[in-house]
Write a structure and sequence with these properties.
The structure is a homodimer.
Chain A: H1 2-35, H2 39-70, H3 74-107, H4 118-141, H5 144-169, H6 176-209
């Protein structure tokens, strides 16, 4: 049983790494589509989201098969369950990229964002994509130190997100209420995406090493 | 094994029903705290949230024990995994109630919401609480028909949520950008809460009956 278990766990980890790559591509494209009002790219993100949903279903099936056939216990059991949770968060990250792409489509050919907030979203997008790519690397390399570095990237997204509010609420905000509402929701999508990435990273470390990283709890 | 399995599954279902009751209380109090600028009530929701987090950890432990000791397969396995997912969504619903309570605390003694949108939140709050209470009932009574009725309640929340945007973006909106941002985020919290409730209801039907309800897929 042990060998079959490890082969199947390896397959599951590979699938999760692929999902991480997909949702980082999705967020990269969605951010570009939003910043450059690129309708074609937005449409691509929107139609590709079903692939992420399918990948998540595949991960669950693989995990179920592993549980049913190998009946792992103790740490092995927790590893499989961590993988199921990670797949759920990754699907949610795909949904958040989808929301960004839909905003780009909804406002097209108008830009979604006024010029003065675009740099914040360019930065949040860059960090969010980097977070998801690191998750992919962590699962491939089992590099726990890389997982720790995710925390500071997540803090950066939180800082930009907080700063965005002060920009929107400044008395010099001249883009009206509708744009403020768009910026508010979009900011939240990036913040949630980054949060999920950190949560996945922690679970991935657990999947790869069987030990939960010791740093502070991240709000799900 | 079969009998032990059913006793343990029953315990797990009871725990999930309790969690449903807790998060419906939390949303009821958070909504009241927000609408009546009741700081004490807001503080209570905020401090009680750790109980929901603990309950979720308990549910996971029970589910892990069940998997490790009983090694269920096929439908039985899926039921336990559905319970783990349900616990995660319920914890998230608690977090969303917490966000509402924190908004009430942040603006206290000022009201969070201008008078003209308060009725929308009173309605969304009422429906959200009803959704969570129905989830509790579904798990206790195994009434699948009740689960189906959740969909229309969720549609109502979506309708109110959509209508809120038209109120905020109306040219007669006179409450400024900061308030619009608050209303936007709070509206989203109720919408997400209702979505999670429907998702939990579907999983609860599965936990109670071993069959997934046949109605259309709900976006997580």
């Amino acid at each position: 049983m042990r060998e079959a278990y490890h082969v199947e766990l390896e397959n599951l980890a590979t699938k999760l790494a692929e999902m991480s790559a997909s949702v980082s591509d999705a967020m990269e494209r969605a951010t570009k589509a939003m910043l450059e009002s690129d309708l074609e790219l937005a449409e691509r993100v929107i139609s590709d989201d079903t692939l992420v949903d399918d990948a998540r279903a595949d991960c669950e099936e693989q995990a179920y098969a592993l549980l049913a056939l190998q009946a792992p216990v103790a740490t092995d059991l927790r590893i499989v369950l961590a993988a199921i949770h990670a797949a759920e968060s990754l699907e949610r990250m795909g949904d958040l990229a989808l929301h960004v792409a839909k905003a780009a489509r909804r406002r097209h050919p108008e830009p979604v964002l006024p010029e003065n907030v675009q740099p914040y979203f360019a930065d949040m997008g860059k960090i969010a994509v980097r977070l998801a790519r690191r998750v992919e690397q962590i699962i491939k390399t089992r590099d726990i130190e890389a997982a720790r570095s995710l925390e500071s990237d997540d803090d950066q997204v939180d800082d930009i997100h907080r700063h965005l509010f002060s920009v929107i609420m400044d008395k010099n905000w001249e883009h009206g209420v509708a744009t403020a509402v768009d910026v508010t929701l979009l900011g939240r999508f990036y913040e949630r995406y980054a949060d999920h990435a950190v949560s996945v990273a922690r679970r991935m470390v657990f999947v790869a090493t069987g030990r939960m990283p010791g740093y502070s709890t991240i709000e799900p």
